[in-house]
């Protein structure tokens, strides 16, 4: 796992070095710089040495220097690809570097290499014979890649902070329309970023750059799509057995590491399944597992994690995340997330990553299980929501929503009032809007107040609507699965995981996102993902022998934090260290939240993430969004 940076066009190695060194946290084990002045191409790399530490230095080249790459990620099928390339006559210099597979694979297949890769990656490939540079990102967007394209050339990097080091971006400006999207989603959906000049390469895409003309061409090589008419052969029992087999193979491939490795463990089905498969592949007592707990009982899952660790016999460690630990992190938040992200669970994820990094360099996570196998609560209510939408007139809906808004606010995780008020959001509109408005941190009404202007849901959630309308599937559940996997997973969950872990130089791998597992999940009918009101039914069947029954049947909590309660203990000054939201609106929402007259955790957390620091008395660095 690493950080990459570079550019085409005018520039020098001093600029390249500044860009690359801004990513030192992503790659603390080494630096590589290269430039080709004739073609005006510059490549930089920061290395976290996990595979073949002695021979994996980058940029890495093929035998004659015609093809070179800087690469962030891990290719899990590098062994079979290497075998095939050797058979085709390619000569490898490294012992077992997955990076070298990329340069020889590009030499052999060009862009057709991309669908052959099973892994997480963001890379820049220098192709001398074709006088081009190609940026590419993995199928589901586990690894980030930003770029700024103009007639002067393209600047790219793993994080926005790297691009900001280039003089061509000295006059960077905010994109006000993107701020509306941020409040609506809690993230900036690709290709959008906070800035007009910078784009995010979408998952499953490649960007070709002609080094002679600086012209660019964006290509999509993969998209997740439910295939309801292509169910695998066999019955439900056979599907569960095959899923178990695929997950076992995926976990085994992700245990490949020349550095210490552990597992994030929550005691939920996803992480417990991964631990069980890991214990099939190596002695259980040699497996390190890590958990984060909370003092607030309704949020705490550490007891379940300890139960699963004892069941398997792993070497388990746990740590408590409390408000003091969270406040101590707030001054680091802009550096951790790089671009604003309104998912407060990034804080415990970062604490978990920091804790794990004390002992290991690589960790496996359960990311992707909920999105692929219908693990979220909204899946349970889709049918009821459809009936409500069809039969409840808008005036009646407005009255019901007004009554629900007056319910006492509970600080408990996924409390009744929280689920009811969230569930009523958007139910008077078409289904394409339900999921983003349920998940979004701020309602359209709150966005209107915070930005001082009307917020049309059709415009606010345009990207989610387009994803919904473009789905091949027709059922509500399948379309919702596509929404979560194509939209929420790459834009929120995987961003959170990458930034929280890479800030401390920890590589996180997600076995559920293996190509074969994802493709198999896409072919399974939704009736075995959500069955009889049971979420992730087929996964639970596949894992039934792998964990105690109490873990299989327990209610999902999610990796949230008690942010609603903690916000009430923060002073208003902490929320006002931002310059783009209306201060009076922030103050009103905070007062309603503080006094228990409303639950505005999402909007207030957005205000915090737009502030440079939420620690009273500190200097606010801020995001340069105004201007």
Share of helix, binned: 40-55%
Low-confidence stretches: 613-627
CATH superfamily caption of the largest domain:
HUPs
Give the CATH class of the largest domain. Answer: Alpha Beta
Whole-angstrom Rg: 24 Å
Per CATH, what is the topology of the largest domain?
Rossmann fold
State the shape: globular
Tally of DSSP β-strands: 17
- How far the N terminus sits from the C terminus, by CA atoms, comes to 35 Å
Tally of structural domains: 2
Please report the number of helical segments.
Answer: 27
- Major β-sheet annotation: 6 strands, antiparallel
Strand content: 5-15%
What is the residue-mean pLDDT, rounded to a whole number? 88
Structural class by sheet pairing and helices: alpha+beta
Strand sequence of the main sheet, in spatial order?
A: 2-3-1-9-8-10
Level-2 CATH architecture of the largest domain: 3-Layer(aba) Sandwich
Highlighted features:
17 strands, 627 residues, Rossmann fold, 6-stranded antiparallel beta sheet, Glutamine Phosphoribosylpyrophosphate, subunit 1, domain 1, globular, alpha+beta, disordered C terminus
């Amino acid at each position: 796992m690493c950080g990459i940076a570079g550019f085409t066009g005018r520039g020098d190695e001093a600029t390249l070095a500044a860009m690359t060194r801004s990513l030192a946290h992503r790659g603390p084990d080494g630096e590589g710089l290269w430039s080709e002045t004739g073609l005006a191409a510059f490549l930089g790399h920061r290395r976290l040495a996990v595979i073949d530490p002695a021979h994996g230095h980058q940029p890495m080249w093929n035998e004659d220097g015609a093809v070179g790459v800087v690469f962030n990620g891990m290719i899990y099928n590098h062994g079979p690809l290497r075998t095939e390339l050797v058979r085709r006559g390619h000569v490898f210099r490294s012992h077992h570097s997955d990076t070298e597979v990329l340069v020889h694979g590009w030499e052999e297949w060009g862009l057709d290499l991309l669908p052959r890769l099973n892994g997480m990656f963001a890379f820049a490939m220098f192709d001398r014979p074709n006088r081009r540079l190609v940026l590419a990102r993995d199928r589901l967007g586990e690894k980030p890649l930003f770029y700024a394209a103009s007639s002067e050339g393209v600047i790219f990097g793993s994080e926005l902070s790297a691009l900001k080091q280039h003089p061509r971006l000295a006059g960077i400006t905010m994109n006000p329309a993107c701020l509306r999207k941020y409040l609506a989603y809690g993230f900036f959906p690709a290709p959008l970023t906070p800035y007009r000049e910078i784009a995010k390469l979408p998952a499953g895409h490649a960007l070709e750059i002609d080094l002679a003309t600086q012209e660019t061409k964006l290509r999509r090589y993969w998209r997740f799509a439910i295939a309801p008419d292509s169910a695998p052969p066999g019955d439900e029992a056979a599907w569960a057995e095959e899923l178990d087999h695929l997950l076992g193979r995926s976990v085994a491939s992700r245990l490949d590491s020349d550095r210490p490795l552990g597992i994030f463990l929550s005691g939920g089905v996803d992480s417990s399944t991964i631990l069980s498969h890991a214990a099939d592949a190596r002695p259980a007592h040699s497996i390190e597992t890590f958990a984060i707990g909370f003092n607030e009982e309704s949020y705490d899952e550490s007891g379940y994690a300890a139960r699963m660790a004892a069941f398997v016999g792993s070497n388990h460690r746990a740590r408590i995340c409390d408000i003091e630990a969270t406040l101590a992190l707030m001054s680091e938040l802009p550096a951790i997330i790089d671009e604003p992200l309104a998912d407060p669970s990034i804080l415990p994820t970062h604490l978990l990553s920091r804790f794990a990094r004390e002992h290991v360099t690589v960790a496996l996570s359960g990311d992707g299980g909920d999105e692929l196998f219908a693990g979220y609560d909204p899946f349970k209510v889709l049918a009821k929501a459809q009936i409500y939408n069809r039969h409840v007139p808008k005036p009646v809906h407005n009255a019901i929503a007004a009554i629900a808004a007056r319910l006492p606010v509970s600080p408990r995780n996924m409390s009744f009032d929280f689920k009811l008020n969230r569930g009523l959001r958007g139910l008077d509109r078409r289904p394409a809007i339900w999921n983003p408005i349920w998940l979004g941190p701020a309602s359209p009404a709150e966005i209107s107040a915070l930005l001082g202007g009307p917020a049309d849901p059709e415009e606010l959630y345009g990207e989610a609507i387009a994803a919904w309308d473009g789905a091949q599937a027709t059922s509500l559940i399948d379309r919702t699965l596509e929404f979560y996997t194509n939209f929420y997973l790459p834009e929120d969950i995987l961003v959170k995981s990458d930034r929280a872990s890479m800030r401390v130089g920890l590589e996180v791998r997600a076995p559920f996102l293996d190509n074969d597992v994802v493709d198999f999940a896409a072919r399974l009918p939704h009736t075995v993902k959500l069955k009889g009101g049971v979420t992730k039914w087929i996964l639970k069947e596949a894992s039934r022998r792998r964990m105690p029954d109490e873990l299989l049947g327990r209610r999902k909590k999610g990796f949230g934090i008690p942010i609603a309660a903690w916000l009430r203990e923060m002073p208003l000054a902490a929320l006002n260290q931002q310059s783009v939201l209306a201060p009076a609106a922030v103050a009103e929402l905070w007062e309603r939240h503080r006094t228990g007259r409303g639950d505005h955790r999402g909007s207030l957390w957005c205000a915090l993430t737009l502030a440079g620091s939420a620690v009273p008395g500190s200097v606010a660095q801020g995001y340069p969004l105004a201007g």
